Amino acid sequence: MATADSLRAARVQLVRQQPEVLLTDIQLPDGNGLQLVHDLEAPAQTEVVAITGHASVDSVVEALRLGATDYLVKPVDIERLRAILKRQPEAAELRHEIGELRGELRKAGRFGALLGGSPAMQSLYDKLARVAPTSATVLLIGESGTGKELAARTIHDLSRRRKLPFLAVNCGAISPQLIESELFGHEKGSFTGADRQHVGFFERANGGTLLLDEVTEMPLELQVKLLRVLETGSFVRVGTTQPISTDVRMVAATNRLPEKAVAEGRFREDLYHRLNVFPVHLPPLRERGNDIEMLAQYFLDELNRQEGTHKTFSPQAIAKLYERSWSGNVRELKNYVQRAFILSDDVVEAAESTETQPEEGPSDVISIRIGTPLDEVERRVTMATLERCGQVKRKTAEVLGISLKTLYNRLEVYSMKDQARDGGDVRRQAGKDRPTDNSTSPPKH
């Protein structure tokens, strides 16, 4: 082990040896300690951990972008430092494994849990291979059905945390009243119905990777608490004030454009920048060329294996695959193949589409007064789209660019608000109809 108190002294040490771990303070007497990343002979073979006394969203993001694979805040959390050092012995084995995978993916057309050999997927694989061994936060951006959870699982499986838990939570599928408890846990008796202690996702994923899917659907008040966890590495269970340390690799995912969600006031800009350390865009199926046929054959092979059959695609069925837009992407393709498989004998023909296309007409446009609250705008657009799609919720979710679970969650919230409003109206009307003390006798003069 070697130490240095300045950039100049550290550079002398780097000439003498290539460290496995480089712990560097961001503020050194003669400059930024992260400049040392450029002096490493083989940067990929060294884990760079930035240390700062004044952590902020900007400083942490900048540190990770400059080459740090993790960061520590003064005073240094010894347990977190030990966890970083404990992962280091696997680094060489991991780099070798990723190198082999990157060579094989160009032959087999698959990488981790992902399938496809198109240029768009090759580019995606390269990004995942580069970011997986680090501790950088990753933001996965892609349409519904493009494989964001598979990409997150691949990042975990190719990281030094792969032997520890990988957990995924859909922020749009949990009601706003319960999501804080699900993420951070709660103590017994902390609220009505809390009859036992509950351990949240952050605590269960300690040491591993946590995927926050549909992160832009998280309530704004909870986004503040998530930002605090990302900055401090600790959280508090509902019903207590005792902080709990956590060492979790964060991967977030969204099927929205995050910049648009920020502009609409649905997503905090500071949280967006904190999560957007390493953005990864997943290509839609329509941009993946021959991957459509490769994936369809893969799904057919899986069905043949499960059912003990030997069905094959007809040439017409293959041709039909390239005529569709696949708005539901790989998930839609999988369902399509299964439907065609069920309807066919030995040769699989094209299946009929089950999509309900909304008709065009004057009602495709709604007018909204300037100054209408965003919640009301969202409600009106959602309900108008649902009506235009003939109350078909799956198609409505696709048109709105959200998951089916998010749509159900929204409709439940709207229903609860309607019930609360109707109940209030009944109570107010009852109050108006109730006679006052002076209503039974005329006024005296």
Write structural notes for this entry.
With 445 residues, the chain is an alpha/beta fold. Helices cover 44% and strands 13% of the residues. It is built from 17 helices and 16 strands. The C terminus is likely disordered.
Strands, helices and their partners?
Elements: H1 7-16, E1 21-25, E2 27-28, E3 31-32, E4 47-52, H2 57-65, E5 70-73, H3 78-87, H4 91-108, E6 110-111, E7 114-115, H5 119-131, E8 138-141, H6 148-157, E9 166-170, H7 179-184, H8 201-204, E10 209-213, H9 220-232, E11 234-236, E12 243-245, E13 249-254, H10 258-263, H11 269-275, E14 278-281, H12 291-307, E15 312-313, H13 315-321, H14 329-343, E16 347-348, H15 374-388, H16 393-400, H17 404-433
Parallel strand pairs: 1-4, 4-5, 8-13, 8-14, 9-10, 10-13, 15-16
Antiparallel strand pairs: 2-3, 6-7, 11-12
Helix pairs in contact: 2-11, 4-5, 12-14, 15-16, 16-17
Organism: Caldimonas brevitalea
InterPro entries: AAA+_ATPase, AAA_lid_NorR, CheY-like_superfamily, Homeodomain-like_sf, HTH_Fis, P-loop_NTPase, Sig_transdc_resp-reg_receiver, Sigma_54_int
Protein name: Sigma-54-dependent Fis family transcriptional regulator
Kindly report the spatial arrangement of strands forming the biggest sheet. 9-10-13-8-14
Give the total of domains: 4
**CATH class (first level) name of the largest domain:** Alpha Beta
The major pleated sheet works out as: 5 strands, parallel
Keywords:
445 residues; single chain; alpha/beta; globular; 13% strand; 17 helices; Rossmann fold; 5-stranded parallel sheet; 44% helix; 3-stranded parallel sheet; Helicase, Ruva Protein, domain 3
